[in-house]
Each structure stands twice: as C-alpha cells, then as structure tokens.
C-alpha cells in the first residue's frame, strides 16, 4: 500500500504528540531520504509489512512504532540502506526485503545481527539479500570448491558469476571458465550450426546474462575474444587441467555421476570451482541418475570443500516465485508427472 508524503507527516505529528514514544531515526541528506523511502514511500511500505511496524515521515526523520525488537530491526535496516545510498548504490524493494532478512537473522551464540556480504565489481556493488546468500559468498572466499543447491531464483548462479568476475578484475585469477551440460542435445553438439560458442550459447545464456550484469559489455566481449572468459561445454572438458581460473558449472543436477566426477577432477592449481544446481529439476533421460547429491554426500567433510543449501525462503527473484516453489514442494511427488485430463465438451463457447 502506498501513501502520500503529506498524510505521513500528519500521522507523524499525531503520534509524536501522544501515546508511547516512537523510535525516531534521523538522516542528514533529504535527497537520499527520498531515495530511501522510494516512490510514494514504497520501500517504507515493504518495511512496515515485513516487520509489523508503522513508519511515518517528517522531512529527514522517520518515526517507528511497534514492538521494540521490530522497531530496532527497522532502524537498522533504514540506516544500512541509507549508508548504501550514501556510497552511490541504488536500492530497490528487493534490496529492502533483503536487508530486512539480514536484520532479523541473529547469531545463535552471540545474538549479534549478521551483516550482509557484498561483492564489488567496477560496474556495480552486489549485496547479499538473504543470510544464506551471505554464507554462500563467505564460503566462496574460504573454500576452493563450493556446491550451491536450491530452487530457482535464489541467486546461486548470479552470485557465482559475480564472485568470479570480481576475482578476475582483482587479479585473483587469470580467466573465467563457464560450463553447463547441454542436456537437450545429449552433449552431441556437432549437428548445430556455427562455432563452439554459437553451439552452446542457448544453454549458457543465464551465465551470459549474469556476466553482462556485473561487467561492462566491452569487457565481456574482449574476454570472450581473448579466451580470458571461456565457454567450455561439459562435453569437451575431459582431459583438461584448469589452473589459475574461476570455474563455474551450472545446472549440475543434469550431470551423471561419472560426468560430475570427471568435471570435479579438472581442478588445477590456484583455482576455485563453483557447482550450482537444483536437485528437484533433473532433466536427464529416464534411466540416468543425477550425480549432484551423490557428489555432495561423498565429499562432505573434505577440507576446502563446502556446500550451501538454499531453500524457498531464499528466493529473491520475486515473491511469486517463492510461492510457486512452495506449491510444488507441497504437491504430491507424482503430481507433476500426471497428464491433465481434457475437459468434457471441449470446444469454443
């Protein structure tokens, strides 16, 4: 629900003149406050809805009413987002929701709010929107092989590419290698027209989209031309050793156990590997098993290897995607395989 700024000011005055004292947050730059609140206070509406507080505005001050813990979390969110705006970052309703998720996530032992992890490239600053995304980015810093599994829309692939691009720009690796199984073509790509890049482009498009979002287009094109950014289909990975590189395997649920073992053993010196996939969306032909869960189980506990499991609570694409994932998880397992029955008396009405 959106509100006009004038009505918000009237409510602010009414609240501060009587009843329990609100928690008031003050900011220095009125222009940044406008960006913080969003068009028609849309960002503030997200804050109110998610935290159960009532927020009212008067100039560069925001008054918060509600449970003490909720007001404290709202204050933390507003201050964090304001600081990001002051650094030149743009924020959206999705960023507000992400900051809220971090604000209410506490450390089980110290009871301290966990900060949101960030990745900075020359083009943009990417901030984790869920605690699981922060854990993912921190794991990528610490480990040389990280598995990321979970439903669509949780940022598994996007953050992997963003992290790899940041490492490339910082000189922490010499090249990026992007790979994905081309399940629909059965890994037999020779009949498709064009060179190798053109053959696999349809399968690697999500990786391209993420690359162009975090790197300047000319940087991506130059990298592809020089081989600094390499398109390496899974079918052509056998026998290689990938050194001084950031290696990403996307849609790994569509790898057989032998394919995934082959890929994982390509890891060379001074390299990191990120393997992403959704075990609930296996597109392998009948009779072929996915190797993703098996690989995670086999390698569990091995040093420098970690796995991050995202859930529907981490879906950041949009809330509707989260509800779609939830509905599919709640449905009987054989529901999706049933063919819908035709309606009786089908025909135009």
TL;DR of this structure?
With 349 residues, this protein is an alpha/beta fold. It is built from 12 helices and 11 strands.
Q: Total helix count?
A: 12
Give the CATH superfamily of the largest domain: P-loop containing nucleotide triphosphate hydrolases
Low-confidence stretches: 1-19, 106-112, 336-349
Largest sheet: 6 strands, parallel
Q: Which second-level CATH architecture of the largest domain applies?
A: 3-Layer(aba) Sandwich
CATH top level of the largest domain is: Alpha Beta
Rg from alpha-carbon coordinates: 24 Å
- The total of beta strands comes to 11
Strand percent estimate: 5-15%
User: What separation lies between the terminal Cα atoms?
Assistant: 38 Å
Structural class: alpha/beta
